[in-house]
Amino acid sequence: xxxxxxxxxxxxxxxxxxxxxxxxxxxxxxxxxxxxxxxxxxxxxxxxxxxxxxxxxxxxxxxxxxxxxxxxxxxxxxxxxxxxxxxxxxxxxxxxxxxxxxxxxxxxxxxxxxxxxxxxxxxxx
Length: 125
Prior knowledge:
Blueprint: H1 12-26, H2 30-46, H3 80-103, H4 107-122
Helix pairs in contact: 1-2, 3-4
């Protein structure tokens, strides 16, 4: 794929994240694979549309959606800029949490979060 292009399965950022996940899994780098899985999950969760809790309230019993996927709604399509903003927020969240862990005297956990932040930040460049 040409740099900067988006294909039908998602943004260029997502493609880089997926490629990085594959590479981490092949290299048996559990920490990197884990943080990339989380990042991809965050992007996928952001595509979910909220379904009104009362959506089925006034339907006849025979018309209420039943079964796996019966009440599915089309997912939102995020732009590349939205993907980048979400990933940047994940980096910032990890850096802020690392600072809090550091202040609490838990330097090992703080360093782990900083490593995760660096892994994700590398995909923002």
